[in-house]
Structures are given as C-alpha cells and as structure tokens.
Amino acid sequence: MTTSSGWQPRFDLTDEGDFLRLCWHPGVQMELSDVQASVSAVESVSLDCKRPLLVHIDAVSGISTEARELLLEETCSSRTAVLGSDEVARVMTAFNYRAATPSRYFSDEAQALSWLLGPEPEPGA
After folding, report:
1. Which segments of 1-125 are extended strands (E)?
2. Does domain 11-116 have CATH number 3.30.750.24?
C-alpha cells in the first residue's frame, strides 16, 4: 500500500479470517504516523465489527511516546495479543496492560492465538 504522498506503511496486515495479523517490518522505530496508519488499516478491513488482533513486535527497534499513548487509547480491535520472543520486546510493550481493550504479551504464538480466539475474559481478569 502506497499513499499519494509516496509514504509506505512499515508493517504488513493480513486477514486470517477469525483475526487480523499485524507484522512490523524489521528495525522499525514506531512513530505516531505508523500507529495511525496501522489503526486505519485494521479499521478498513473490519468494517462490520472489531476483530481480535495478533501483533508481531519482535522486529521493532523502539516506540515513541506519542505512538505508545495512541496504542493505549485505541480500540480498533476486540482484543490484542502482542507476540515477541525476548525480554526486550516484553519490556518495550509492558505498557499494554493499561490499554483500552484487553491486551496481553506472549512469547508463544499458539498460546497467543488460544487467548486471542478464546472466550471473552471476565471483567477484572
């Protein structure tokens, strides 16, 4: 996807049917414009209802304060599983427990998908 300004998103979004998969490109420093573009992309493929979102975060080198704040406020998905493989990814996304929608960090994709596609969590759980 290229915009009229020539800007290209620094992520790939695929529709997996029951959920969406967002994979950030290697070495990306996530900025506000990146998060805004990812939110728009998620919303454009889920017009009828919000769906679960699996976010691959390993490739990201960092995240700006503005981008982090938007991620906390955004409600474009019904729930979000963040998938990483090391402590750097876990620390970089530690803020997600305060997100407006249910969000969790995982290092195992099978566990992430089980939670993402499982029953709705009880309030406060």
Report:
1. 11-15, 20-24, 29-30, 53-56, 62-63, 80-83, 103-106
2. yes
